[in-house]
Amino acid sequence: MPIVGRIYLRADRDVKVGEDISIYELFGREELQKEFNVESDIELDKTRLKVTVEKLGAIECIADAIKRKGAKASIWNIMKYKDMSSKIKATQEVKKGENLSVTIEAV
To answer: What is the domain extent for residue 53?
Structure first.
C-alpha cells in the first residue's frame, strides 16, 4: 500500500485500553490541522485511505481532497468530519500529551 503521509500528533486526553474514541476526540482540531508532505497522489472521492493511529488502530475512509505528491496536507483536509468522528477501540493506554504516530496509506 502506498504511503500518503506520516505525522506525529499530540494526544489531547487520556484513553484507557478498550475505550472507544475518535481521531477528532483524541487530537482535536488544532492537532489535526498540522501539515505533512504528501508522498503519493490522492483523488477526491476516489482514493480509499487507511489511517492508522499508534496505540489505537486503524479506520478506512475515502479521500476528501485532491492532493499531489510533494504537496502539503493535513488530516483535517483529507478526511471527512464523519470519518474523523468514527470510533476506534484503543489497543493500548494513551496519556494526554503523548505524541502518537499517524500513518495514512492508500489502499
So the answer is: 3-106
* pLDDT for position 1: 80
> Are the beta carbons of 95 and 83 closer than 8 angstroms?
no
User: Taking a C-beta distance cutoff of 8 angstroms, is the pair 100, 55 a contact?
Assistant: yes
Number of separate domains in the chain = 1
* Nearest of 50, 51, 31, 54 to residue 100 by alpha carbon: 54
Instruction: Using alpha carbons, select from 30, 40, 16 the residue that is nearest to residue 76.
Output: 30
Which cell is 58 given? 486503524
Q: Extract the runs of DSSP E, i.e. beta strands, from the chain.
A: 3-10, 20-22, 35-37, 48-53, 57-62, 72-74, 87-89, 99-106
pLDDT tens by residue, the chain, 107 residues: 899 999 999 999 999 999 999 999 999 999 999 999 999 999 999 999 999 999 999 999 999 999 999 999 999 999 999 999 999 999 999 999 999 999 999 99
